[in-house]
Amino acid sequence: MMRGFQEFTRRQFLKSASGGLATIFFNESLWKRVASASEDSSSRATPDETVDQWLPTCCMMCGGATGMLVHVVGGRVEGVMPNDENPIGVCNVSQDYGRERGRGAKLCPKGNAAVASLYDPDRVPAPLRRIGPRGSGRWEAISWEEAVKEVAGRLREIKERYGPESLFWCSEDASFINIQKDFCELYGSPNFSMHSNICDVSRKLGYKLVMGHDRPLGDLQNSKYIMLFGWNPMAATKWAHLPAIINRARELGAKLVVIDPVFTHTAAKADEWVPIRPGTDGALALAMAHVIVREGLFDRDFVREWTTGFEEFSRFIKGYSPKWAEKVTSVPRETISRLAMELASTRPFVVDAWSGPGHHSNATQTVRAIASLPVLLGQIDRPGTLLFPERKGPKRRGLKLERPLPPRVDGLGTKYPFGHGSGIYCEARDAMLTGKPYQLHAGVFVFQNFVMAVPNTTKNVEALKRLDFIVAVDTLLSETAELADIVIPGSHFFERYELIANWTTWPTLALRQPVVGSHVKGIPEYEFVMALGRELGLKDKEGKGFEMSYEGYMDAELKSGIGMSLEELKGLPGAVWKSGQTRYEKHLEEVKAPEGAIIDEKAGIVRNKEGKTVGIKLREKIVKGFDTPSRRLEFFSRELKEAVVLPDIKKGFDPLPSYEEPEDEPTKKYPLYLVAWKQAEHTQGRTLNNAWLIDLKPDNPLWVNTETGKRLGLAEGEEVWMESPYGKARVKVHLTEGIHPEVVGLHHGYGHWALGKLAKGKGVNDGLFMPGKAERLSGEGITKEVGVRIYKEASKG
Amino acid sequence: MSQLAFLVNQYNCIGCHACEMACKQQWQTELNWRKVRHFEGGKYPKPVRLFLSLSCQHCEEPACAQACPTKRYLKRDPEWIRRQPWIREREGKFYVVITPTREEEIPGHLIMSEGRLLEDGLVIYNDVVFGKGGRGDYSKHRCIQCGLCEKECPYHVPRRNPEPPDEYSPRWEKCIGCYPLVQQGIPPACARTCMGLALEMKPLETLKGLTDEVPGFRYEGTKPSVRFIPVKSPLPTNIVETPNL
């Protein structure tokens, strides 16, 4: 029943070994070689068996970084507990934090199961060199020294032959990214990319354009009305406090409305579920704005003082009636009008959108349309509304490069003038296939299972095969790692450092730290990156390279970011730094006009000498305003209007949040929408080999509306074919009342053919069916937009 | 302290299974002592989904303890203890009578604190001692693998572990109410981690007036110590239990 994890590991291993596991990976002789290769590595100090302590860190089962205390006995993790010193896991507003922490911090199922990932017997045990064809699963263990020498050698060769820009490097976005950016810049590649562009960059851009802040957070706890467009915070629990802050609001009588094609677990908690056709959220939001404007329900003073483009917007919105929107969205016109009236008559409210509308071809304009609702009603940056978080974090060192970086391969800054700094994975992938604008030759994938994460799996595999040299850093042999030439064993988050500027609304910073020595007897991957930099002799003009320790690097980042050393941060209660309070209505704060400022009295705008707007003239005072070009909230975006569009792109960008039909809607041949969602049991595709989590939900059957199923003659549990123009697979049917009749969908993250023994062969991968395009404004991968058909016979099609 | 009970708030429960995982990591168990069940019903566009998080109900009249031929289970209730003919008290110590000729002392700290019998009503094992960090001492293991505890429990809570880690481990397992924590005033692991604010452990007497039945759970003669805050909307009649899909 109860036992230490050493036994857990040993037993699991023995079980798997006796199960006739035939791959070369886990045979005995390899393990012996692994053990000897590890002998000379810089493994951590031997743990003291008598030490029994609780150490603070931040979870990394997903990117949410919820606060965690880890019970370590004799160098083994025995258990975890929420860390209430860290607001992540308690709430996101400082004014509530003091009270709520007394009622305890939270951890989600993934955080509680973190230890099963730490001691996962499938973890990559040592640096590996592929000895068979790509995907063959045949590897040999090599020493860390060999790994550094080989990777450095290949990268040097590729740089000399094809130029440094032929290196594509991508990373999970909360993991030592600064040292990776440094590496890419010093190597000379512009192509450092991160996970965000398949996550939430359309949301970021939409809000940034309207509100001047790219990551507003809802003060859900103090809200009276919460309207969520395609956001599932009760199950896609990025921060463990999310369900709690919504439930606190519900207990106090807030109404929760969830607009989603799927009856998600959040919808199941809502007072009202509004099923909608996928990708049409923008039409619904515009029709609600139409009602609010037509009925004169908007906040006139707020709109006059704090917005720009209302005149254009109110003319534009006339065309978007509830009658029109009913046809587009399938939401009855009465419902649309009623929701608009409810919103307009309730204060304070939060309207938010995340990855539902965010993963469509019209995502940015949709988010802009949704963002215009709180703007119309003045529900911004006040208690109980969307807040603009203030953030302070580690500051990355500046590098003085020998020469400027060449243009990026993915069109960021050119084809995508509004694209996010995290890059555009879909475009990079297409460039691997087409060689345009130039051919990539090397790829480094750090905790990014590119094959499974980027829409259109088949294309991803083909693209990666075109690369001459691939390095994968991961804890498990993912589908991406299977294609690699060298695999670097990734560390579990219990084994490494990170500085986390939290997703709270006031500045807080938390430490992730190694609580145990490396399970794989290796070095953390940031030290591998630094070793690689040293081996290649990478330095900037001032000689800055990778000579320091990683602790030293972090220490410098912390000192220049918040004026605190790493040791000081470690010494803080719970290893969390918190500063000040959540502040509201920051646009009203007075600012000093800079020298030579020009005040446009009529428009009420203050510009600096260079003509950049720096404030708003408001009744004899100069105040900060919002961080948009006009310092006001923008219904109409001059930036979008004036954007330089490359000649080969037909359309410009509409300065108003116009509704565009999704590009890849169902067709006659493929009549059903396919969507995917997250649930609390898993983080995308990466926790699927966690023994405890996969046991909670070992499959992701396809949800089909009962009526639709009846029409197609489908039975519960039946296996059928699902096919899109891009892929097909066998799926298991689950008939439910909880999905729009025109839509089928499944829990994202399943369908692995690698990763580990437990993940393999379970469920279906939705990425297989997707076209694999990027949103034209934000560059975000479109992961929820395609038509599919379902049929029983194998031969059809 | 009087009988403790789980308060399950179905209105708040989000079906995330964090309670289940928190329990698992706390006691490092192979089986999940707590289980979250899923229910669906209603008709599009007004479906209903319910979640029900249950472990052991720590019944006032535990059938498992009555059924066990080797007397492995024990309820931390002075009145109940003194009522059991198979428990003998001698000089402030308590003994389990396993056979007429075989008696074993119940480790004092399992049932007593500061010389007084504990009254929290948790149903625990008397042959497994839980220390901090979740480790068990199985030296007094007595399970003969008859399965009567599971059979007689109206909720079939004790379950067989098909692959116990060693020969000394009990074959039938269940929630112990996190008694080593609860005794120190710390909430049980499941309630402590609950993201939905849907699970608490409270004295049963403070939960008067709350319902003791919801879809999927009936109040039985063993007097289960669990109460519910149901969802607020009226339930459709076609509610059925589903797997976690």
Report the total helices of chain A.
26
Distance between the termini of chain B: 40 Å
- Distance linking N and C termini of chain A: 52 Å
Largest sheet of chain A: 7 strands, mixed
* CA-based gyration radius of chain B: 18 Å
List segments of chain B where confidence is low: pLDDT < 50 over at least 5 consecutive residues. none
CATH C-level class of the domain at 128-199 and 394-492 and 524-547 in chain A is: Alpha Beta
Structural class of chain A: alpha/beta
Shape of chain B: globular
- The helix content of chain B, as a percent range, equals 10-25%
| Interface with most residues | A-B, 65 and 51 residues
Low-confidence stretches of chain A: 1-47
Helices of chain B, by number, come to 7
Largest sheet of chain B: 3 strands, mixed
CATH topology of the domain at 128-199 and 394-492 and 524-547 in chain A: Rossmann fold
Helix-strand string of chain B: EHEEHEHEEEHEEEEEHEEHHEEE
Q: What is the CA-atom radius of gyration of chain A, in angstroms?
A: 26 Å
* Oligomeric state of the chains present here: heterodimer
The outline of chain A comes out as globular
Strand order of the largest sheet of chain B: 15-1-16
Structural class by secondary-structure content of chain B: alpha+beta
